[in-house]
Write a structure and sequence with these properties.
The chain is globular, with a radius of gyration of 22 Å. It has a two-stranded antiparallel ribbon with strand order 1-2. It has helices at 3-16, 26-49, 55-72, 84-96, 108-124, 139-153, 161-181, 199-214, 221-233, 252-264, 272-281, 297-311, 313-329, 343-355; strands spanning 241-244, 247-251. The relative contact order is 0.11. By secondary structure, it is mostly helical. Residues 1-48 have low confidence and may be disordered. The two termini are 33 Å apart. The protein contains 14 helices and 2 strands. It has 2 domains: 1-49; 57-364, Glycosyltransferase (Alpha/alpha barrel).
């Protein structure tokens, strides 16, 4: 909305909420007060966000975050915060994002502990389903993130052929779980046997499957195409993405997740619906969703950072200049970031957001 449109809108409100003799009524005063508060706080928040940082500052922040995650990591290789499996898998991705790809890597001990933990969970399964990597809180999020971690860890320890073989078995089992769990509409729900579906789970599972496919694992083409069709159907005319197939409640978080999933399939805006979603995301700077304090702030930026990096240097520089400094400012002295979903989750997500441009993870490579 341009400045002219804002002025016109306030003028119309004045006509609607005016007393006799042209004096403003209480309704108008309340509306003007709200608008003044909203626009001023939004502008101030945006000004605070423009904090440019050097790569050296980013590296220090990342190291502090990884130190916090190391302290939270148990001997068994799990972080027992909220959503333990999902958080542990994200932490594994965070450690991998530093480029510790060998037995001599700085964070290879942490990666190996997390890898063995997830492999053990694959062997035992969850809820009586062999190969299902999750817990009562993480649900299919835990499985999707675990599959994504395994695809990125594949090849990390090339001098341990027995470990590579275990990873391959776990990936094949995880793929089979996801393929079987796909609903009749092409999406995924919170549990493998759910008949209902949800947009973030659909985007996450599609990205995980596609990453498995890209490193040579067999994934059913039909599963991929049905998931893509689900996301296309869930995209509104303005490019925003619905909560689920039949729930017309869209958010920037869902839209960013959808675009990441489509980009993983090679669609960087070639399809009309993905192009519209990219256009929709251009308006995110004027949304409160993008600011610290939004419930899904870290999930939004985890996906938004991937979108912007994939679009090229110009898009990334604009995004990083606007949000990286703001993200680093929120980091606590102990290296963590705060979230209602657990500080370890927020910390792992933040490290990944800051590491996207380093391209150590295959999923981040352009």
């Amino acid at each position: 909305m341009g400045i002219e449109n804002k002025v016109v809108s306030i003028g119309l409100l004045e006509k609607l909420f005016t007393k006799d003799k042209g004096r403003p009524g209480i309704g108008f005063l309340l509306v003007i007060g709200f608008c003044t508060f909203f626009f001023s706080t939004t502008i101030l928040a945006q000004e605070r966000r423009v904090v440019r940082v050097s790569r050296e500052q980013v590296n220090r922040s990342v190291q502090k975050g990884l130190r916090y995650l190391t302290e939270r990591l148990s001997r068994s290789g799990e972080i027992s915060d909220d959503f333990p499996v999902a958080t542990t898998a994200l932490a594994g991705l965070a450690f991998l994002s530093t480029g510790s790809y060998s037995d001599n890597g700085l964070y290879s001990p942490q990666i190996l502990k997390i890898l063995r933990s997830i492999l053990n969970k694959s062997k035992t399964g969850f809820n009586g389903i062999p190969g299902y990597i999750s817990d009562k809180d993480s649900k299919m999020y835990g499985h999707a993130y675990s599959l994504l971690f395994l695809t990125q860890a594949h090849g990390t320890f090339p001098r341990r052929p027995e470990l590579v073989a275990e990873i391959q078995i776990a990936i094949r089992k995880a793929i089979a779980i996801v393929e079987k769990a796909q609903t009749s509409l092409g999406g995924w729900g919170y549990e493998p046997l759910d008949t209902t579906d949800e947009g973030t789970l659909t985007a996450g599972n599609l990205q995980a499957l596609q990453q498995a496919h890209l490193i040579g694992f067999k994934v059913k083409t039909e599963t991929i195409e049905r998931a893509k069709a689900y996301l296309e159907h869930s995209t509104q005319s303005d490019g925003s993405v619905n909560y689920s197939y039949n729930t017309p409640q869209s958010t920037y978080s869902l839209t960013a997740a959808k675009v990441v999933a489509m980009q993983s399939t090679g669609d960087y805006g070639t399809s009309e619906h993905t192009r519209k979603s990219l256009e929709y995301l251009k308006g995110i700077d004027s949304s409160a969703d993008v600011l610290a304090g939004f419930a899904h702030y870290y999930y939004l930026h985890f996906n938004l950072a991937q979108v912007m990096w994939a679009l090229g240097s110009e898009a990334w520089q604009q995004y990083a200049g606007m949000y990286q400094g703001e993200l680093i400012k929120q980091q606590f002295a102990d290296g963590s970031w705060p979230s209602q979903y657990g500080n370890s989750y927020a910390t792992a997500s933040s490290v990944l957001i800051l590491q996207v441009s380093q391209e150590y993870l295959p999923m981040f490579q352009r």
